[in-house]
User: What shape does this take?
Amino acid sequence: MEFSILRDLLNDARTEMGDVFSGGLTQGERGEASLRAMGKRLNGAGLRSGARLLDALCDALAQARVDTAWSADDALRIFAQIWDYLTVCLGRLDYMEAKASLASPG
Amino acid sequence: MSDIRTAIAAADEEYLVTLANKGLYNRALRELPDAGIVVAAEGENIRAQFADGSAVTMDGSILRYTCTCPSRSVCKHLLMAVLAAQELFAGAGAQGQLPEDGAATDAGALDDAATDAGASDAGDAGTATGAGTTDAGTADAAAANAEHAFAFIAETSAASLEKIAGKRRFRAAVTESRFLEKPDIREASTLTLKLPESGATVRFLPGAPLETAGCTCKSPDFCSHRIQAVLQYIIEKKGSLPQEFLPEEKPDETPEIDVALLDFLRHSISEVFSSGLARLPENSGHRFLQLATLCHSRRLADPERLCNRVAGQLEHFAGKSAVFQKEYLIGDLCRLLKLCDLLEKEGANPKIAGVFRDEYHPVAVTDILGLGAYGWHSTGGYTGVTTLFYAPELRRVLRYTAALPDNVSSGAVKMYNAGAPWGLNARLSALSHSALRIRGGKLSANGQLSATESCHAEPLGPADVADPALSPLRYADFDALLEALWEWTEKEKNGESAMTALLVPDRMGPGSYDRIQQRFSLPLYDAAGRALMLRVRYEAATELLLDNLAMLEKEQEKEAKSGGLLGRWFGQKYNCGVFLANVRMEEGALAAFPVTHYGQNTRNLSLDEEKNEINAFHFDWGN
Assistant: This one.
């Protein structure tokens, strides 16, 4: 897969996460649905760990709606893990792309 | 004899001059006979009443005194009180008894012969001698048994010195003691240590408490010179500081794990995530500021830094500032959450809690090579100049930053042309291309050098960018540079956003300007044709830098046409010179922010206007 497509995908995932953050983790189903869709895109691009984490986050958020005694801590930790994952992926992608571009100088 | 009586008996001319000065001492001697002093001793408390109404009270120590006169420093009354008390005690001793508590005498009457100020009377030790003379018996004994008389100083325990000096100053002095030159030590009636770095002279009295030591800095407290003098005397007598002075653990630097605080931090983060940005109360930023203060008091450096950053971002959001970046806020909150969990799991681990970057610690005498300097302007409203150095012995890049708030700053270029720190008779601009030896320097965890007055720099000459000592920073192969950058990003980043490197390109240009992003890019190529982009965004603080880069490009073109080389430096020939730059990865490419170009006209690109070009061959240390 091209570097630019992967970068766009990772940036899109960060944007989705950012939107969920802005609206509040416990504020409804719309953000949850877009996160599940994003998980599928990550899975399709071979970023399976990211996809699994997004699914886990969505499950935790879904539980929040049915369980009033639910604590946000679990979802919060998964959110932090995903953010960390995306940041590391973008860093590695930068390195790999820079390496590739140096290997084939124009 | 009590502590204060021992101290008074041993306080000779040298000691009293150290406390005050020669002129005041002579004046005290002159006025003593007519001062009409009545000295009264009561336990550790000695009171001297003067005919002019002034009164001096010494409470257990010569230095712990009060005087009713208006003087704010050591006054003639204190000196006269000590001299009068000496006479009182010596007189009483001659009669085979020490004055009883409550005994009082008129010093003027005791010593009618005290007219010959400064005269020495080595006669009967027990006789009240002339004013200004030392108690000859005591002085002779001290001189004869000098080593024995001061042995107690060499036996000072770490705990007792720490108690007198205070924990923080004690620790700083112990660290510093290993890097200081040996003082000049003289053992006579007093123990005198002259400290070469500070120039201060400290005098101790035989048998008297350490707190009675006098110092030429005149500080009424137990100053850092006095602490250092004790340490240096111990080193002199024992060869090194005993182990008790060098604890492996530094308790006050150990983070304190407060589970309640960690829970509160997590709760506060959770609230931000749960409610969402738009529903956050306006004072959320303030809460994180309070949390930062709590983290600081428990020495949790990284959590404190993150709380401050979160507070800043929340305030930007509340103020609808364009500076607000949601990604930064999310990243910091996630890192903070992770840190809380780690600290709870791993306990008081300083590696997890981080180090305070604004705390400076003494650094050994070391040589530093000036690399370059750049001007900057922060979103927080500060303008500054940062000078970069490489310390070969420490194998790291160090920084010296001069910064001022915008409302008092007259611009980075003026700061750059102002005076240099560390006692150098030079402009700040000269530092960026100089090799210096620094003594008494202080360094923060992220490589910032302090402007502390205790630091003195000795110029060693111009720094040579081709110096083999700089080879760890020099890259002619951009693939090797990328590998080094990746390793640095993974291991050593330490809060920095870019790695400082010296780039040796084979060719450069042409440059281009992106009008949409308002960014100038100038490609540099290594011998294999691999590219690195010098990228500079247009803003007020980078105008001069952009002008200089454009000029550099023109010079390069001109040289290329005439078959010359742009980069000639110290007899070395480089095709287009050497760039000092802060290198990072950006959008899948190597990118760098240029700081300095070394070539025919070496320039700090954001600070040197054409007319101010630096020529390292004509080094000027004058103003």
